[in-house]
Specification:
Number of helices: 14
Helix content: 25-40%
Distance between the termini: 48 Å
Strand content: 15-25%
Shape: globular
Strand order of the largest sheet: 6-7-8-11-17-15-14-13
Radius of gyration: 25 Å
Largest sheet: 8 strands, antiparallel
């Protein structure tokens, strides 16, 4: 596996990864964080996949159907040409609700000749802990676990079932389909019904893309990133996933392998803020409802992360039978970081709430619920801002007074005052302003290094950290401020390497980081642009666009030397940063078409 050359398909309940060779190597059903059905991504032999093996293959090409989340893989063979269109159904019903079943559909279309291929169907339910047994029935092939937790899976197709279970050669003479479902279907499945679902799903995504704001530059990249972020939102609760996968290593052969199929308050809040900026307010409203539901009482403590259904306990354990991606163990399920204290979450959430209040009107009960959350978050900041924490990078060792955490505590109180002003609740503002000033004074006295001429990673430290670049983005400091300019240059000098960025260059509890954190490279582009280094910023941004995979998707990390994608995939962090950077470099200038749309709407 040389690179994460995968496409994502999904329907906001679950999602799958399809390799550039047309193999479904990652799928969890019926929802994102369920045990895997296919996990070849994590173990070539024990993970399971639904793959296609063409006869006499000459070449393969893969692309999304424009402005949708339908993925087309085209196989050119000596005997003929065929394509496979992969999608998970999502469309509006006649009642107006979103239909999004736990189904993956593959449509096989003959383009020319008489192409020949084999289908290899190898589901491995429940993370492949025990064998999955297949049985052929009149309408479907059923897979079931015979040991351990009971689970089952249904495959429908108009291919001969024996050809699928025995991987016989198939000659494609007309359009065919394979449908894999967590549920037994009530209606007869045939090519006509499947193609109708495909067209309805295509229309859904085209309509969604049409609502995405278009800017003067980089619209294809913005749209693909926005579509990807939408796929990482969970329709049922409004939660937003950090990534689709678990245990893809930050560095090959090492142990920084984490489960990202959960909702981090920080990541989710950043995602909805960006999607709001490109005119997708429903995702933001659903996410804020998720926040209201996980903080039902006034003394409820806020965790840094939750399960996508609001679970508060995310116990971490290993799957030792899996060899891991590129033999990088361990493979983990759950994430023990849920117990950590990270004080930056308060400011990032409050920033998203403020944006919602400033952009949109809301119902009275929703506004009152959010106002209660705002006042509770202020109380949390009052109790916690002086305390050390684990920071944005979730250091599992010693807690520190991280500069970024302090700045975001300042942001929380700044945004709380702005929200109070919008809601005409001025009585709170004087007290909150005093707290804001106190936090700023603490930062200026303790986070600045005269020696480095930079704000540092933590109080009393001379180490630098890329997260400090966000001080300007969150309004703590102006891009023209000499302290900020000096900080940008110092961080660039110390942390930039081979055109990419370290998060930090000091040892943590796992040693020295060896890969570049993709979002940090976007942060540097933004920072350089804001201090007036516009040409250097644009040059770096254009290079970063080349480092995506063949479909414009990004993982969490990049190898400094080879630019190979590493870490969990696709990563919400990376895509939200791409959108934000593209908008900043475009200086927020919308396209002519967008101006016309605004004028006539």
């Amino acid at each position: 596996m040389e690179n994460l050359n995968y496409g994502i398909i999904g329907n906001c309940k679950s999602a799958a990864l399809v390799s550039e060779k047309g193999s479904i190597d990652w799928l969890c059903l019926p929802k994102f964080d369920a045990p895997s059905v296919f996990a070849k991504l994590l173990d070539e032999n024990k993970g399971g996949a639904l793959s296609i093996e063409p006869k006499n293959l000459l070449s393969i090409g893969q692309e999304y159907i424009d402005r949708t989340n339908l993925l087309c893989t085209r196989f050119i063979c000596e005997e003929g040409v065929f394509e496979v269109i992969d999608f998970m159904p999502r469309y509006k019903t006649t009642q107006g609700s979103a239909y999004a079943p736990p189904d993956v559909i593959r449509v096989f279309n003959r383009i020319s000749g008489a192409p020949v291929f084999k289908v290899k169907y190898q589901p491995k339910l429940e993370y492949g802990l025990h064998p999955t047994e297949l049985s052929v029935h009149s309408k479907f092939i059923k897979g079931v676990t015979k040991k351990g937790a009971y689970d089952s899976l249904y495959l429908y197709s108009d291919f001969d079932f024996k050809d699928i279970t025995e991987s016989n050669e198939i000659t494609l003479t007309s359009s065919k389909f394979i449908l894999v479902s967590y549920n037994q279907k009530l209606l007869k499945q045939d090519i006509h019904r499947v193609k109708l679902q495909m067209e309805r799903t295509k229309v859904y995504w085209l309509n969604w893309s049409e609502r995405t704001t278009t800017f003067s530059k980089y619209n294809d990249e913005i749209n693909r990133s926005a579509l990807t972020l939408k796929l990482l939102s969970y329709q049922k609760t409004g939660a937003v996933l950090a990534a689709l996968t678990t245990s893809l290593p930050e560095t090959i052969g090492e142990v920084r392998n984490w489960d990202y199929r959960y909702c981090w308050i920080r990541d989710g809040s950043m995602v909805v803020k960006i999607l709001n900026q490109v005119n997708h307010k429903t995702v933001a409203k659903n996410y804020l409802n998720f926040i209201i539901n996980i903080l039902p009482e006034k003394d409820e403590k806020m965790q840094i992360m939750y399960g996508i259904s609001g679970e508060k306990k995310l116990s971490e354990y290993e799957l030792p039978h899996f060899s891991g991606y590129a033999d990088s163990k361990p493979v983990r399920v759950g994430n023990a970081a849920y117990k950590q204290k990270q004080n930056d979450i308060y400011g990032i959430l409050m920033d998203a709430i403020y944006q919602h209040f400033s952009l949109y009107s809301a119902t009275l009960d929703f506004s009152e619920d959010l106002w209660t959350v705002v006042r509770n978050v202020v109380k949390m900041v009052e109790r916690n801002w002086k305390k050390p924490d684990k920071g944005i990078w979730e250091i599992r060792g010693e807690s520190k007074h991280f500069t970024f955490s302090k700045v975001l505590c300042w942001v929380a109180i700044d945004r709380a005052q702005k929200i109070a002003a919008l809601l005409e609740q001025e009585s709170y503002m004087k007290k909150w302003k005093q707290l804001e000033d106190k936090i700023r004074e603490d930062i200026e006295n303790n986070a600045w290094s005269e020696e480095k001429q930079s704000y540092t990673q933590a109080y009393g430290s001379e180490d630098l950290d890329a997260s400090v670049l966000l001080m300007e983005s969150y309004g703590y400091i102006d891009g023209k401020n000499e302290r900020y300019r000096s900080t940008v240059y110092a961080i660039q000098k110390e942390l930039e390497h081979e055109g990419l960025m370290y998060r930090y260059a000091n040892h943590d509890d796992f040693g020295l980081p060896k890969s570049a954190f993709t979002i940090c490279a976007f942060w540097l582009v933004n920072a350089l642009y804001k201090i007036g280094e516009k040409e250097a910023a644009i040059e770096r941004f254009e290079k970063l666009l080349v480092y995506s995979n063949h479909l414009g998707l990004y993982s969490e990390d990049l190898d400094f030397e080879t630019k190979r994608q590493l870490g969990n995939f696709p990563q919400a962090y990376s895509h939200l940063a791409l959108i934000e950077t593209a908008i900043n470099i475009s200086e927020g200038e919308v396209s002519k078409e967008e101006k016309i749309k605004s004028a006539i709407s």
